[in-house]
Amino acid sequence: DASTVYGLIAFGLLLLSQTVLNGVTRCLCFGKGLLRGTSSTTCAIFFFVFSWISFLGAEACLLAGSARNAYHTKYRGIFGGDDLSCATLRKGVFAAGAALTLLSLLGSIFYYWAHSRADTGGWEKHQNEGLGMTSSSYAQQPPEFEKA
């Protein structure tokens, strides 16, 4: 059945996107660190948890929906049922998977945005260090060519 294949493809692509996101941001655990005490860090942690919860819910819905749909359609004849019955999946399983996928997408985007704002990149921010802006001491020289 096409919906089984689409569900499994969505499952795989969602898994791939979460893997890429956590590989790029180093999953909040393995990076150089985030700025401490900023709202961007708090948002990054919140959206990290939010994206993972919605990701796990979406994966569960997509996998369960695909497996159940495959049982009721494609594999029904193999396991002893000759005719397809009306016993199918609840209508909302794939819809819930799609909604949670969308929430996972939004959570991942906001997590990446907040993480990039709070990421130190391995460098610590120093304030009031170094040389300030000064005026130069050399005077402007007149142009070499003058108008005739």
TrEMBL record:
Compartment(s) of residence: Endomembrane system
InterPro entries: DEAL/Modifying_wall_lignin1/2, DESIGUAL
Transmembrane helix is among the record's keywords: yes
Main subcellular location: membrane
Membrane topology label: Multi-pass membrane protein
Keywords: Membrane, Signal, Transmembrane, Transmembrane helix
Transmembrane spans: 6-24, 45-67, 93-114
GO CC entries: endomembrane system
Top-rank taxon, per record: Eukaryota
Family that this chain belongs to: Belongs to the DESIGUAL family.
Protein name in the entry: Uncharacterized protein isoform 2
Species in which this protein is naturally found: Theobroma cacao (Cacao)
Upper taxonomic lineage: Eukaryota, Viridiplantae, Streptophyta, Embryophyta, Tracheophyta
